[in-house]
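Q: Give me the 3D complex with pyridoxal-5'-phosphate.
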Amino acid sequence: MTVSRGREFLSIPGPTTVPDEVLNAMHRPAIDIYSGDLPAITERCLGGLRQVLRTEGSVFIYVANGHGAWEAAVTNVLSKGDRILVLESGRFAIGWGEMAAVLGVEIERLPGGWRRAVDPAALEEHLRADGAGRIKAVLVVQVDTASGVVNDIPAIRRAMDAAGHPALLMVDAIASLAIMPFEMDAWGIDVTVAAPQKGLMTPPGLGFVAAGEKAMAVHREAGLRTHYWDWTARSGPMHYQKYCGTPPEHLLFGLQRALDLLLEEGLENAFRRHRLLAGAARRAVEVWRQGGAFDFNIVEPAARSNSVTTVLMEEGRDPAPLLAFLSGNCGVVLGIGIGELNGKAFRIAHMGHVNAPMILGVLGAIETGLVALGVPHGKGGAQAAINWLGSELAAR
Ligand SMILES: *Cc1c(COP(=O)(O)O)cnc(C)c1O
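A: Here is the predicted complex, encoded as structure tokens.
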């Protein structure tokens, strides 16, 4: 017996739900790539991205995904044999570093494990030990979608400054942009990597890279540059050069609409909405975890992200039956554990085009699954989410 008809709730940490307005904006014929509306659409997308990234720097749009944007970022500022420092807090900065290693960059890792945020003091100490300045760049994610952690980027910048270290600060904001505050220029970030399919509510297929002045200067000497990713080639006078070929027209139609929706809502309101809905999910998990079958993956409450909550099962308990029950019987698709957490965790995404019934519905379905499968859990998690959301909304 199932109760799965109706709209499916895709609750994975990307791709996220695409608003109907964005889907509708994409539903149109292809247009000329040499004249007409397209150059203006590109400018609107770039302008919107600059507003969301909070930067006056250069923004590049690639026909790629986040991994493509990672490679674009690395090849534009580094040379073979350069050394970089990767800050571990889950899967994604490590993956970015591994990509750079294949290109001939030497990797140092600041170990941090999978259950906590990057420690700025450990970073400062590591950089102080590099008096010769061999480390050319520091790579970090703002939100790691595998572990569910949020890193304190301003504190990481302060640690680099305190160590007096000249390395570039390169930040992956793929799973945090439009979800929580991000201030590329004010926080002294040199290179930002982003993608459309998380907080930006647009189908996958694009990668974004933003570069500040210092990164653009370093770029001139970078030895790993290739024509497709190259910032200089993409800064040429012809519109098609911005994409090194045919622009991804329909994704741009969608992106423009999504950026409009976001800026209409207001970034501050979007951040607050995410904080409230993520808070509701955390209230539910806080109650359920008292049954002992699972716990928050991220130990420190303040380091749990507003994008995704990663739930770690107790030793030997497989999350697969719960995920299968939810997708097969309830029309809810949760994220699986990835990397080190494969087979050990599940992930509740609460980012992008989400509202109260979507998140409360997901939480209610999870609690239904816990009951149906006899997974030990504290009772009333969904009720706790409702109580918290109600009191937060009443307070304003
Ligand atoms: C999703 C994600 C990526 C990878 O993006 P793809 O588009 O799948 O290549 C990288 N970093 C973070 C933090 C992500 O959440």
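A quick observation: The longest helix spans residues 267-288.
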